[in-house]
Amino acid sequence: MFSIIQAAGWPIWPLLACSVVALALVIERFSSLRTARVAPPRLLDEVLTLTRSNLPGPDVVQKLAGNSALGQVLAAGLRSVIAEPRISEEALRQSLEGTGRVVLHRLERYLNALGTIATAAPLLGLLGTVVGMIEIFGAQAPGATGNPVQMAHGISIALYNTAFGLIVAIPALMFHRYFRGRVDGYALELEQAAERLVPHLMRFAVRAPA
């Protein structure tokens, strides 16, 4: 492996850095976008059952908010009704939507960086190809005998960097689209959960006299 890096020349180092960063981002996103940390399957039903007759206390709401991303959204709705018993349905929906946007932004963290690596890696490989071509042309200077060692080194730089750029870019693009699909799916789940929670919580809202 070290001999390949030596043959690829200095343009390989930015690609190596991109590969390390991309691997770290993929591992982090796999950990952060687990279903248990974002939208546990039974959490909404448990909250609806818990609040069937009355609203929970602050400790329970705080524990719910720290449970998962979905729990944070549900806790925002509970806090809004507890803090303002005369809350309107529109205000409750706005509270849930605001918290949902914050949660969604956190779920999308690092996805732009992964997409940037997927886009930049082939260009960095192309840069290595250009550097290798320059080495090849330098080995064939007019009026001088061609330098086969320099020519071989230029070919190595061009081919290794082109290949490594694609090796980094293709998996990064695949994982970027995979994680983007997961985030979109979670966003839909959060929206549906909020729609179920709103009419349930409005039963506890105190109606203002006409």
From TrEMBL:
The chain crosses the membrane at residues 12-30, 110-134, 154-175. It is a multi-pass membrane protein. It comes from the Bacteria. Residues 67-191 form the MotA/TolQ/ExbB proton channel domain. Keywords: Cell membrane, Membrane, Protein transport, Transmembrane, Transmembrane helix, Transport. It is found in: Cell membrane; Membrane. Pfam families: MotA_ExbB. InterPro entries: ExbB/TolQ_transport (IPR050790), MotA_ExbB_proton_chnl (IPR002898). Belongs to the exbB/tolQ family. This is MotA/TolQ/ExbB proton channel family protein. It comes from Aquincola tertiaricarbonis.
